[in-house]
Amino acid sequence: MFLYSKEQFLECEEFPFAILPFLTMPTRALQPHYHDFIELVYVAEGHGEHLYKGNSYPLSKGDTFVIAPGVEHDYRVIGNVPLKVYNIMFMPSFLTSELEALSAVTPFLDFFYVEPFLRENLDFDSHLKLSLLEGHEMKQRIDRIFKEYDEKALGYRISIKAQLIDLLIYLSRCYDQRVVKPVFHNNESKAIRQLCEFLELHYAQPIQLEQVCRMCGMSQTTFTSKFKQMVGKTFTEYRNEVRIRASLKPLRETEEKIIEIAKSVGIRDVSHFNHLFKQHLLMTPREYRIKHRT
After folding, report:
1. Which residues pair with 56 in a beta bridge?
2. CA–CA distances in Å: residue 44 to residues 41, 56, 136, 146
3. Model confidence over 79-101: pLDDT tens digits?
């Protein structure tokens, strides 16, 4: 399995972005791969299969989806027509504050984070399939971004970032109009287990209680009671615990400032981070770092 690295594909460290049309030929051998950046994919032509985490999903014109970093996937063509996709690639750091703000909008959260997480479940059959009109709108947006990236005229980086945000908002609106909503399993116990698995991956996102209740298909009263009963703590307590646990490795192994580590795990207030850290480990982040360095 190959690693497609950010050094190979993205423009540079200061501007970790790229957009490329990619043509998969019917005769191409399988090349399972993963990458260390986010990939937003739009299928422009052809039919095929998306091989994702060991499962196979049909692909055709209009399919739009997100591939998270570190996920193995590949494409296989069905028929004699090449499969043409557009890959929009960027590091999470490229849109840090924008992704954080958009995550508070439920349709964006569904499309960008929840749907890729649920895609590995065989009983889940929901993804963003654009209509002809939506596909035309999408292609126009992609063409404008590609033109900016290709020509690199004055201010192209600012223009690309603004247009990418516009594209993500457009896709979120398309996703919001779908009848099928991505929710966790309708069994309450399994839904809460899936939510906990989801939080282990996306602890840094500003997910609200209202959003997780909708994900699990429960009222706030029912969710709060069931979650506490199953997990032994409230949703907020559990998420804080996951965030503190995620901060331990960078505290031990890097020189990154504590305030930046706090932000990276989803806690914007460093004093609140210090309070939570001491609550869980009975020492401050600084004391923990000194102890493990010694």
Report:
1. 51
2. 9, 19, 10, 14
3. 889 999 999 999 988 998 898 88
